[in-house]
Amino acid sequence: MSNPKVLITGAAGQLGRAVMTRFPKRYSCLGTDVANTRSGIVYMDITSRSSIQGVVNQFRPDVILNLAAMTHVDRCEEQPQLAQRINTEAVQNLLDCFSGYFIHISTDYVFDGRSGPYSEGDPTHPINVYGQTKCASEHIVLDSGNPALVVRTNVVFDYLPTQASFMTFVIDSLRQGKSIRIVDDQWNNPTWTVDLAAALERMLQQGHQGLIHYGGADYLDRYSFAHLIADVFDLNPALIHRIKTEDLHQPAPRPRKGGLKTDLFQKKFDCSPMELKTALEHIRRDTGS
Fold it and tell me: What is the DSSP letter of 65?
């Protein structure tokens, strides 16, 4: 697509920041969010059709990139109606107000985590509310009649000291000399926001449609991920203690062997995801950490 106007939801979030750094260099972009709005981001509530319609009528986008979601897995489990409203019903709201090219971010949590990493053709079987609401949203997008793309990803990370994330938790805790407990039985291929933003730009540029997976090059458990962070940032790995998922007694069940195969993306775009250590080294250099 040549120079489309792109409306981005969830622009103040972790992935949204990376997209808003990259996309305006090539496209006419409008970033929107419901909270934490900052300079250059417009308020829009995706649970309100009137809010969406007002922004769409004024900006007249060619593309909507939907990054907005309720991603806190335990909060979704505890507030299923709110999760349904944000993760599923709001997607229908967006599509009711827009008939153009729609790109929607989803998750490997649509799978049960018994036999990952997963390919696009593997059957879905979500085991928690978050996964169920995202799985339902995929069907809405792909059945909408819009030219549309669902991009599944997993364990999206970056280091933003002011924004809660796994990486921020690990770095800040270890720098303060605090011991942390990290599970060693949840497997994924973590995905750097900047790498994912670049992949999304490739997909948008070609107008790719359907369903596609994108994740990092390395498949590992969270404990090993934390150790790699400690190694790259010169932090004390002795403060990291391995535990099992069941030790955390979390409200929402977690898939154990999740993650996503990226063969289709690599074949379609002749491009490979970034290696995890390389991404972490970029982050350390870019943040001066």
Answer: E
